[in-house]
Known about the structure:
The complex is a heterodimer. By secondary structure, chain A is of the alpha/beta class. Chain A has 3 domains: 3-177, 3-Layer(aba) Sandwich (Rossmann fold), CATH 3.40.50; 183-362, Rossmann fold (3-Layer(aba) Sandwich), CATH 3.40.50; 369-525, Gcn5-related N-acetyltransferase (GNAT) (Aminopeptidase), CATH 3.40.630.30. Chain A has helices at residues 36-40, 55-58, 66-78, 100-123, 132-139, 141-144, 147-153, 159-177, 197-204, 212-228, 241-250, 271-282, 296-305, 321-330, 338-357, 364-370, 385-394, 407-415, 466-480, 497-506, and strands at residues 3-8, 27-30, 48-54, 83-89, 127-131, 183-186, 232-237, 261-266, 289-292, 310-311, 374-379, 419-428, 431-444, 449-457, 485-490, 512-514, 520-525. In chain A, strand 7, helix 11 (241-250) and strand 8 (261-266) form a beta-alpha-beta unit. Chain A starts with a strand and ends in a 13-residue tail after the last strand. The model of chain A is unreliable at 331-339 and 356-361 (pLDDT under 50). Chain B is 57% helix and 0% strand. The mean pLDDT of chain B is 90. Chain B has a single domain, classed as Non-ribosomal Peptide Synthetase Peptidyl Carrier Protein, Chain A, CATH 1.10.1200.10. The chains are: A alpha/beta, B mainly alpha. Chains A and B meet through helix 7 of A and helix 1, helix 2 and helix 3 of B.
Amino acid sequence: MKTLLVASSYLPQSISNWKNTSKHFTKINFADYGNLINAFSKVEDYDTLISIIFFEDIYSEESKNSTDLIVDSLKDSLKLNKKIYLSISYNFCKNLITSARYADYDLNEYISFKDKIYDLAKDNPNLFLIDMDKRFAELGHENIFDSRNWYFSHMRVSLLGFSEIDKMISKVIERSISACKKVLVLDCDNTLWGGVIGEDEIKGIRLGGDGIGHAFKDFQAIIKNIKKNGVLLAISSKNEEKDVWSVFDGHDEMILKKDDIVCSRINWIEKSENIIQIASELNLGLDSFVFWDDNPIEREKVKKVLPDVMVVEAPPEVEKWPKILENLFDFSKIQVTQEDINKSEQYKSRAKFNKASKEINFDKKSFLKKINLKPNLTEISESSLLRASQMSQKTNQFNMRTIRYSENDLSKIQANRNFKSFILSVKDDFGDHGQIGMFILKLDLAKKTAFLDTFLLSCRILGRDIELWMMQSVLNIVKENDIPYLQIQYLETERNKLVKEFLLDLCKDLEMKTSKNGEIMVKYPSSKSVVNIDSLYN
Amino acid sequence: MKIEDIFCEVMQIDSIPENFEDLEIGDISKWDSLSNMLFLMALEKNLGIRFSFDDMSELLSIKAIKLKISSLTSNK
C-alpha cells in the first residue's frame, strides 16, 4: 500500500485535508473531480483507490442511468484486485424543505444505488465500503453539509464533514491491513452484568429490567450478533466457575448462553495466561484476539504482557458500550459464510480436545517479578477503620472465618494490645490496587498461643501469590513473639470454597481436624515457611 | 492557533513568509482560490467565526482577512 489515487465526485484536492489517510501512503494523486469513470479506469497505475461519492453529484433526474454507469465501471476496476475504499453519502435532509414527492423519489434512487454498492462489496473482498450516512446523521447534517460552500465552490461539506470522511477512511484502512479479529474474550462481573456474582449473588446482579441492567443486556445482544457473524466468544474471568455458569443457566435476562462460549477460563490466575491458553486451544494467533474488560488494571496487564491482543479501552459508562462494540466489528467482514457460522462449533470441539491434551507452561515466577508488585501491610488505624469494616462486611469468597466486624468492633480490637490487626495495600506496574486485604491475629503471650481471627483478601488481587505472602507475614509475627504455632480455623460458608482450597493446599502435609459442619482446624508451626517473602516479588 | 500558523498549515509551507502582512492570493504558488477557501474555513474553525458568501470571494489578502476577523470578533 504505497501509491494512492483519490477520485471524488467533488472535494478539494489538497493534502492538508487528508491528515489521517495520507499517513498510509507514500504518494497521493488526485484525479480530476467529477469524472469518476475516467478515474476508475486509471486504478491500474496505483496500489489503492479512494473514491468519495456524494450521491447528488452523480445523480440527476435528466440522466438517470449515470449512476448505473458508475457502478459498472467500478465493477470493472475491482477486477484488477486493487484495494478500493469507497465513501458514499447523501444529504437526504435537504429534501425536507423541498417537495415531499420529489424527496421520496430522490431517496428511493439513492437507496437502490446503495444496494448495488453493498452487493458489490459482498462479492469483492477488495472493496471497502465507508457508509458515511450513519456518521453524518450522528453529527447532524446541519454541521456536515454547508450550502455556502456548495454555492461558493461546489463543495458540499463543511470542514468537519471533510475531516470526518478522512478519519473514517483512515480507520477502515487500518482495520483492513491489520489481522482479522476472530475471537472476543470477555470478562464477566461488571462486563456481562452489573455487580460481582461471587458477592452479590444471582438476585443482586444487574441485568435487564430498567436502568443500567438494560444496558448490560443490550451489550450482550450486540455480542450475540457478533457471534452470529462468525466471531468466536471466549471468557476469561476471575470467579468461581460454578457461579458464572449459574448466571448463564439461571438468569432469565441472559442473552448469551453457555453454548455461545467456545472456550472459557474462569479462575484466579492472570488473564494474560488464560488468553494464551485460549489461543492455544483454538489454535489462533493472538493478533486475532480482542479483549474486553471493565477493569483498567486487567486491561493494562493484558496489554503489557500480550501486546498483540487488541485491548478495548471501554469507558466507565456502560451505556456507551453497545455502540463501541458494534463499531469495532463493523468493518471486519461484510459477508458471513456458512463456514463462519459452523466455525464456532468446530472450534468448540477442538477446544475440548486441546484442553485435555495440553496445558501451557506459563512462567508465573518471572511474571510476578516483572510486574514490580509491592505489597504493604500497615496496622489498622483510625483512618483505615472504615475500609477495614467494609471489607469485613463485604468479602465472601476469600474469607477464612467470615466474622463480620463493624467499625466500632474494629476500633476496640485495634485498641486491645492482644490483637494485631493489619490492612494490606498493593501496588504494581499496572496501578494502585488500594487496600484489598486484612488480617487480625489474637496473641496470648502468657499462654504462648496465636489464633488467626480474620484472614481475608479481595478476589481481584488473587493470582499473584499475595495470599501466600500475607500468610507468611502473619507467621513472622507469631515467630517474633516466640509462639510455636499459629492456630488457623476455617469456617465454611456457601461462598468461601476458594479460601478452603488455599488452606488445604497450604497445610497438605499437616494434621487437620475437620468437623461435620465443614470447620477445619490446623496448628501451623511458625517455623515452617510458606514462601520466601523476600524473593517472591524481587 | 495564530493566523500565521493556520496559513502555513493549509498552504503546507514550513515557515511564515517574510512579508506576510502584505501577501495577497497568488503571491505564493500554493495560495490559489481553492487553498484560499480552505484557509478561510480553517480560520472559521479555529476562531469560531463564520464568513459570509461574499466574504469568501472578497477576502483575498492577509490585510483584508485580518480586518474582517477583527470586525467579526469585536462584534461578538
